[in-house]
Specification:
Helix content is 31%, strand content 14%. It has 16 helices and 14 strands. The strands form two sheets. An eleven-stranded mixed beta sheet has the order 3-4-6-8-7-9-10-11-12-13-14, with helices on both faces. A hairpin with a 4-residue loop joins strand 1 and strand 2.
Length: 522
């Protein structure tokens, strides 16, 4: 039995088990009619939940090619458990190349035309799925009377391996088929969401990290125009995509790792999925550290330009946008190494240098931080500088480029930090997910469930809900949130008591104001 087949069967078994565990059994669950067939969901805390709804056909026969729509089915298909995720290296759930599934949470199956919030998961274009407990849509749907959708799509080599220069014309889009899956999912939402009580003319796409990066990439893709009416990115700092030359270098290196020549594309298409996943752990041929990278490719066709270079896409200037980041982004990536909490001043320059995305002299950075924050320890300088020099510049560029063309944008900075583990992670990368979804007690959340966390969750979820309803995040839960303009740079700094701040961390921004040195893919 092939790995692919085993994964499909595992997913089917999981679906059966989930159906048995649902609060409302399969025989009595709510039924919605999609254009491809009827689906039966469950009811959870008053919210209708449909999991594992197919929006695309099995991609295994079309590896590296655009997906096809699903075949229509007769009868009623159970939508009681999440579908498989794309094969990857970091997940503890069923995976399969047959992964084009989405999930829907709705307060009611009626004709009220609620705002629709489509969430794209993070994971650096390499990992993740729409079934993480942090993304459960029950609380958000119930709180805001909205329809929430999460999506699985092709990732890593399956979704972003650029083979256009190595294979035939059928592989012209291979570097972006993962993004094309998202376009197909958004088209499914447009065509079907009315049956779930949603408004196809009011769709907000939002995502964190790589999910936000995919969304801003969709804004530069002609095929996605008209499918998103508002967008919100949470630490999704992409400014540029991968260029075709570097993408081809990576594709050749990956094939070499598998023992294949560049002209053996047909063999690559037929290898078992687990062999491709194993090869993903190889070193990247163009980076100093880390495993091989695959992400969106500026191929001149599907993606004709970089997402935010040399400017913001003018075709989507009318779309309102939230651009957010967390104050201590890199504590998520670097906080797992206990040595980073005991760095000495002598060790700091060497430790800092490889972690800066921007090409600046570490000793100059350290000296400036010691002037700005004389009470900081070496570790605090390390985390602050890596955040400002690695995870923050892309957000600033996005907001500045939108401001330059007069496109509406609201920027936030999350300062409220995690109380877990003595507070050492603070407001780390991805910390805002549980707050926006109001899932403070979900597995993976480090917000705690105390009064302060509940206050911040109330602010963030209500602001995102207001944005989904009207295209403006202002609401009673937060101070008046001004649009981001130049040179003012107004930013909502979110904490238990939030406040508008003009140009927060101005000195740090100026220290790293070397945008021309941004690395590819930032």
């Amino acid at each position: 039995m092939t790995t692919h087949r085993r994964a499909v069967l595992a997913g089917a078994a999981a679906a059966s088990l989930a159906g048995l565990a649902s609060p409302v059994g399969a025989a009595t669950g709510p039924i919605a009619a999609t254009r491809h067939g009827k689906v039966r969901g469950a009811e959870v805390e008053g919210v209708k939940v449909f999991k594992g709804v197919r929006y695309g056909a099995d991609t295994a026969p079309r590896r590296f090619m655009p997906a096809l729509p699903p075949r229509p089915w007769s009868g009623v298909a159970d939508a009681l458990a999440y579908g498989p995720a794309c094969p990857q290296t970091k997940i503890q759930e069923a995976t399969s190349e047959d992964c084009l599934f989405l999930n829907v949470w709705t307060p009611a199956l009626d004709e009220r035309k609620r705002p629709v919030m489509v969430y794209v998961h993070g994971g650096a274009h390499a990992n993740g799925s729409g079934s993480d407990p942090l993304y459960d849509g029950v609380n958000l749907a119930r709180r805001g009377d909205v329809v929430v959708v999460t999506v699985n799509h092709r990732l890593n080599v399956f979704g972003y391996c650029y083979l256009a220069d190595l294979g035939g014309p059928d592989l012209a889009d291979s570097g972006n088929v993962g993004n094309m899956d998202l376009v197909m999912a958004l088209a499914w939402v447009r065509d079907n969401i009315a049956a779930f009580g949603g408004d196809p003319a009011n769709i907000t796409a939002f995502g964190q990290s790589g999910g936000g990066g995919k969304i801003v990439t969709l804004m530069a893709m002609p095929s996605a125009r008209g499918l998103m009416h508002k967008v919100a990115t949470m630490s999704g700092q992409h400014v540029t995509a991968m260029g075709p030359i570097h993408a081809t270098i990576r594709a050749k290196a990956f094939m070499e790792k598998l023992g294949l020549r560049p002209d053996q594309i047909d063999t690559l298409r037929k290898l078992p999925a687990e062999q491709l996943v194993a090869a993903l752990k190889m070193p990247d041929p163009l980076e100093r550290k880390g495993s091989i990278i695959f992400w969106s490719v500026m191929d001149g066709g599907v993606l004709p330009r970089h997402p935010f270079y040399p400017d913001a896409p003018r075709e989507n200037a009318h779309i309102p946008m939230i651009i957010g980041n967390t104050h201590d982004e890199t504590r998520a990536f670097l906080g797992g190494d206990p040595r980073n909490f005991s760095i000495t001043w002598e060790e700091l320059p060497e430790r800092l240098a490889p972690e800066l995305v921007l090409d600046v002299e570490p000793r100059r950075v350290i000296a400036r931080y010691r002037e700005l924050y004389p009470n900081y320890t070496p570790s605090e300088v390390f985390f602050a500088a890596t955040t400002a020099g690695r995870s923050w510049p892309g957000h600033l560029i996005q907001a500045e480029q939108r401001a330059r063309i007069g496109a509406p944008a609201w920027m936030y900075q999350l300062d409220f930090g995690s109380p877990i583990d003595g507070g050492k992670l603070r407001a780390y990368h991805s910390f805002d997910i549980a707050l926006v979804f109001d899932n403070l007690g979900a597995p993976g959340s480090k917000t705690g469930t105390g009064p302060a966390a509940r206050e911040v969750a109330n602010q963030m979820s209500e602001a995102f809900l207001a944005f989904a309803r009207t295209g403006d995040p202002n609401c009673a839960a937060i101070p008046a949130w001004d649009k981001y303009t130049l040179p003012r740079r107004s930013t909502l700094v979110i904490n238990e008591t939030s406040a508008m701040v003009d140009d927060p961390r101005k000195e740090e921004r100026e220290l790293f104001s070397v945008a021309p040195f941004l690395k590819e893919g930032t």
